[in-house]
Fold this protein.
Amino acid sequence: MGIFEKKQPAEPSAFSLELPAVGKGIAYLGKNLKIDGKISGQDHIQVHGDYKGEMELEVGVIIESTGHVRGNLKAKHITIGGDFDGNLNATDRIEVQHTATVKGNLKTPVIAVQQGSVFEGHVQMKDGNPND
């Protein structure tokens, strides 16, 4: 093989993994995963599986309809579509979708609760001060 010969493209691996359509800067917790611990950082996260623990993110958390979260979440924007039990603190807004079941205390300057959702707890409307 000479220096200037065209290389043949590599054959696809038999073990290639199809990842979900998530964008750059988005972590993905799959629906068949269970995690217990602390998550913090500057990316968004989509939760499709089970998570128990503390989560503190500078941007957004999305709990999809298959997601089950137990713990305390703090982020700029939080969207709940699945099951949540704990405390939520959003500096921008919280959205509770019609598929959600939420049990706990919510702190946020803006909240949207869709008809059909289940909510048991307290809501405290506050400004966007992250120290509250």
In short: The chain has one domain: 26-125. Residues 26-125 form one domain. Residues 15-20 have pLDDT under 50 and may be disordered. The radius of gyration is 19 Å.
